[in-house]
Amino acid sequence: MRRKKNIDLRIENCGKWFNSFDSEQKDARIVEKELIDFKDFFGNSNEVVLEIGCGKGKFAIELAKRNPNINVLAVEKCDNVLVAAAEKARDEKIENLRFICCGAEYLQRYIDDNSISALYLNFSCPYPKKRYSNNRLTHSKFLEIYKKILKKDAFIYQKTDNLHFFEYSLMSFSNNGFYINDISLDLHKSGIKGNIMTEYEEKFSSQGFPIYYLKTSLNKTEDK
Fold this sequence. Notes:
CATH class: Alpha Beta
Structural class: alpha/beta
Shape: globular
Radius of gyration: 17 Å
CATH architecture: 3-Layer(aba) Sandwich
Number of domains: 1
Strand order of the largest sheet: 1-4-3-2-5-6-8-7
Largest sheet: 8 strands, mixed
Number of helices: 8
Number of strands: 8
Distance between the termini: 40 Å
Order of helices and strands: HEHEHEHEHEHEHEHE
């Protein structure tokens, strides 16, 4: 993607809503902690939920608006995309939402263990070629990171339009100690309430594609 005009100035003008953690330690396998102080970061002690791969921020923004008593941390590795999301959150003064620009492989460096109350994986890149499967956000290397940063009773929620990626994710979660708490092969016809549509979801569902959904956790627990 071509870098947008004046993006550095636009990022600077986003203030607290756009955060880029550029560590000197570039090897994600070396976890040298540079932890975010969530109380200082958000200005309160409310629980924190995480979206990885937030894109233009539609889901994160709506989630934050609907739940003013929780903090939403949204992650996207492409600053070209993320800046528009941060600008909208700034313009609407959404105080319980922060965006950070970094890859998911670095999250354990910045997020403390047992600190995230829920995780959302919405329309992650499926990386259909097998040789790139370790880039999928439900690959075992990422699941090990989630196990560290999630609270013990936290849920992971996944949505995708890609059936093969969905099947892969089900196997990956099951093979790595997660329980599948809920599943739907057509979310919009399932009766599951409270769904927030993403940009991709609106596009794919309008074309008649089913949306695949699962909810998983490390414990056999019920929704809070």
